[in-house]
Amino acid sequence: MLIALFPGDGIGPEIVAQAKRVLDALAIPGLTYEEGLVGGAAYKAVGHPLPPETLDLARRADAILFGAVGDPDCDSLERHLRPEQAILGLRKELGLFSNLRPAKVFPELADASALKQEVASAIDLLIVRETNGDVYFGEKGMRKTPEGLREGYDIMSYNEEEVRKIAHQGFQAARARRGKLCSVDKANVLETSQLWRDVVIEVSADYPDVALSHMYVDNAAMQLVRNPGQFDVIVTGNMFGDILSDQASMCVGSIGMLASATLNDSNQGLYEPIHGSAPDIAGQGKANPLATVLSAGMMLRYSLNLADQADRIEAAVARALADGARSFDLGGTMSTVEMGDAVLAAL
Amino acid sequence: MLIALFPGDGIGPEIVAQAKRVLDALAIPGLTYEEGLVGGAAYKAVGHPLPPETLDLARRADAILFGAVGDPDCDSLERHLRPEQAILGLRKELGLFSNLRPAKVFPELADASALKQEVASAIDLLIVRETNGDVYFGEKGMRKTPEGLREGYDIMSYNEEEVRKIAHQGFQAARARRGKLCSVDKANVLETSQLWRDVVIEVSADYPDVALSHMYVDNAAMQLVRNPGQFDVIVTGNMFGDILSDQASMCVGSIGMLASATLNDSNQGLYEPIHGSAPDIAGQGKANPLATVLSAGMMLRYSLNLADQADRIEAAVARALADGARSFDLGGTMSTVEMGDAVLAAL
Ligand SMILES: CC(C)[C@H](C(=O)O)[C@@H](O)C(=O)O
Ligand SMILES: CC(C)[C@H](C(=O)O)[C@@H](O)C(=O)O
């Protein structure tokens, strides 16, 4: 089984290195690794954020462990050359359409959230975000209005097949959890959302055991602040999912702890921490590697079918936290490597 | 000066009635009132959520005091007949493009937020949301893909003139406050946002005294949870503004207290509480009328140029709260009318 390691920019290399140490410690037979260039690092080395060799490696791999992309040096590049294009390109080229973002408070860190402790500690939700369609990938461009004004445009759309696929992901995830699915849209304004809602309702016929509800996105943004504990699984489109999943992770508080997976039809997946490349602390050994370690755990679970080993990683992270391991973002002073040491010790 | 009263659905008539009492108590010479049907109430009476007589009254009025629209009985109507179309139609037909939503914690209610008290009490921000363009009003519809699949689509766009107008609103508001403007977009993905950002930067040349920053919408949703006190004025498009302004109001906690204004080029405005029609408590005298009372205050300030009278309303509301007036949503037992009484007593 081939794992592609894409460390990327900023703190990416530091945190991926610790996740790799943890994977190595599990001594899983038959795992091989190849490293690839992505993001600003790839642009600087070879002139493109997602070079052909990287894309080729991604296609060959069973799973991708991804650090982070984003580099202030690249801010003034044309959009198609910016680091973020690596992640968008990988999602599109590999058909990685189902982005899973669990948000749950670690009991030891319940006070880290800006939300009141009783509100934050009730959070245990999963956002299932579609990542192959919507206004992200529709036709877009600059044009002139009839009066000669500059105008930017982007076409938002979903077809029934795209919605059906992600709806099944949402229902299946809900079935494996607490049996509640909330579909988020803006059907009072958008035709794209109206189709979304119609198709989610059609798919729900296959899941009589899952309780389906619908919520407008503005209300969902309110409810995620007021009472995030009400949610089990949220399924939503690419644009709304981008916003709500970041909001939900911040509700948890310790964003350095949150992992994510993005899967395609053959369970090939890209695994990454939800935080960014943090250029301000890059290279200083201050980054918290736990979100990346937990992403490696998700990788073992979803793409490599090694649930036992995934459980071991998760237990080791929980144990390290319980034993007091705290990086700077968690109010402690432990370095990136020391946090890796703590997980290894707990394994 | 003509004020159009549009009570609408659910608790709308109850809360508008209290705001009207407060306006009457100010005995402002030359104010006249006419009432119009909107929303589900209008649909049920005459078959359309925004009947021609209502639109005509709105055009003639100097300002509109709006209750709320939304009626579960109308959920299965076609979209163009649903109550929400009243508000969308008024915004579009009257050119009401600049939606102002102040969010600030009342000291007496600082504990009402799900956010920690020290986080919530630092909130003092204004969201300036564009409400005449974006994916709300672009071409939209259902079509078939080449493979015969149902597809919903909505075109998102902004032209430079639309962005320029709302950018000026944002900069002017920032100048009148703490001098900080944060423009929120998704320029790493959307061409519409790229134009937005370019034009906001162009307009900033006229406001060297305002500190301009840019933030992606996903990050803004995080920052509104993590540290909402960092914001002074946020300017953003229709879609992102819908989500972020609802999120921000929930951060404040007491959503029954928050007012809004939507202005056009001639300072004609629509004033409404940011909460909805609350059909579950309609007709029970339990609704909090203070957001509508404060909306009437904004109306006096922005459309009628009566800042002194607006100050009086705001002071009376603050006084009533300080004296212990609490409706059900604020943890008390006072009825809608009793809350109105409390404001009148404080005037
Ligand atoms: C980097 C950016 C293009 C990306 C997105 O908007 O999808 C990121 O915010 C994410 O959520 O993975
Ligand atoms: C009712 C709805 C169409 C409206 C909107 O999305 O603009 C509402 O949510 C608002 O924010 O005023």
Automatic annotation (TrEMBL), chains A, B:
Pfam families registered for this protein in UniProt: Iso_dh (PF00180)
Spell out the Gene3D superfamilies in the cross-references. Answer: Isopropylmalate Dehydrogenase
Q: Which residues bind NAD(+)?
A: 276-288
Q: Where does substrate bind?
A: 91, 101, 129, 218
Instruction: Identify the EC number(s).
Output: 1.1.1.85
Pathway where it operates: Amino-acid biosynthesis; L-leucine biosynthesis; L-leucine from 3-methyl-2-oxobutanoate: step 3/4
Which residues does this entry assign to the site Important for catalysis? 136, 186
The chemistry this enzyme catalyses reads:
(2R,3S)-3-isopropylmalate + NAD(+) = 4-methyl-2-oxopentanoate + CO2 + NADH
List each copy of the Isopropylmalate dehydrogenase-like domain by range. Answer: 2-343
UniProt cofactor(s): Mn(2+); Mg(2+)
Among the GO biological process terms of this entry, one is: L-leucine biosynthetic process
**What does the record give under GO molecular function?**
3-isopropylmalate dehydrogenase activity; magnesium ion binding; NAD binding
Predominant localisation class: cytoplasm
* Cellular compartment(s): Cytoplasm
> Known PROSITE patterns for this protein?
IDH_IMDH (PS00470)
Does this entry carry the keyword Transmembrane? no
Cellular-component GO terms for this entry: cytosol
Tell me the subunit arrangement: Homodimer.
Tell me, what does this protein do in biology? Catalyzes the oxidation of 3-carboxy-2-hydroxy-4-methylpentanoate (3-isopropylmalate) to 3-carboxy-4-methyl-2-oxopentanoate. The product decarboxylates to 4-methyl-2 oxopentanoate.
Identify this protein by name.
3-isopropylmalate dehydrogenase
Q: What organism is this sequence from?
A: Sphingobium chungbukense
Gene that specifies this protein: leuB
